[in-house]
Amino acid sequence: NRLPGAFETLPEVFHANGFETFSVADNLNICGEMGFDQGFDHFATFRYQGAEEINRRITSWQKEIDAADRAFVYLHYMDPHKP
């Protein structure tokens, strides 16, 4: 189920076009081991820690995001899946 390295991902396209790329995911499957880190300069995965942890991590990168000429940010929340 690993994303093949030969596939060009959206973050790789953004990165190749001068964007600094950031990703924070709260889904165990959205991880480097599965190839989802392709093209990201900054990448973090959590195991169902909730929106507060996702927000805390992306906020810790705020200076880098602000300093980038252009930034692509991907956030993957699991909270909407809760009952």
Q: What series of H and E elements makes up the topology?
A: HEEHHE
Q: Which stretches are poorly predicted, pLDDT < 50 over at least 5 residues?
A: none
The separation of the N and C termini measures 27 Å
Mean pLDDT: 95
Order of strands in the sheet with the most strands? 2-1-3
Q: What oligomeric assembly is this protein in? A: single chain
Q: Please give the share of residues in helix.
A: 25-40%
Helical stretch count? 3
Largest beta-sheet characterization: 3 strands, parallel
Pairing-aware structural class of the strands and helices? alpha/beta
How much of the sequence is in beta strands? 15-25%
Shape: flat
Rg calc? 13 Å
The count of β-strands is 3
Q: What labels would you give this structure?
A:
about 30% helix; 3-stranded parallel beta sheet; about 80 residues; alpha/beta
How does this structure look, described?
Helix content is 28%, strand content 19%. The protein has 83 residues and is of the alpha/beta class. It starts with 9 loop residues before the first helix and ends in a 7-residue tail after the last strand. 18% of the residues are buried.
